[in-house]
Design a protein that fits this description.
There is one protein chain. The protein has three helices and no strands. It is an all-alpha fold. The chain starts with a helix and ends with a helix. The mean pLDDT is about 80.
Length: about 80
């Protein structure tokens, strides 16, 4: 194996890792956003208006995710 072949193989491996990370990042970001929202102690301390606002926000986020999925499926 010469230097060029070795470099090409390493470059290919790095590109594969970048693609893998690119796919994993949205899931990790969503996890980082959603887990604090699932903290029951924090939710119990919300006023009556806050849960309603949170429900609207969650609904909007769900619609945004659904639109993103539709867009990605068309590509």
């Amino acid at each position: 194996m010469n230097q060029e072949t070795f470099t090409m193989q390493m470059l290919k491996k790095v590109k594969e890792q970048v693609v893998k990370q690119h796919k994993e990042n949205p899931r990790k970001e969503m996890t980082n956003v959603m887990f604090p929202c699932l903290n029951v102690e924090k939710i119990q301390n919300l006023s009556l208006a806050d849960p309603n606002e949170m429900g609207c926000l969650v609904g909007q986020n769900i619609r945004d995710v659904e639109r993103s999925i539709e867009y990605l499926n068309r590509e």
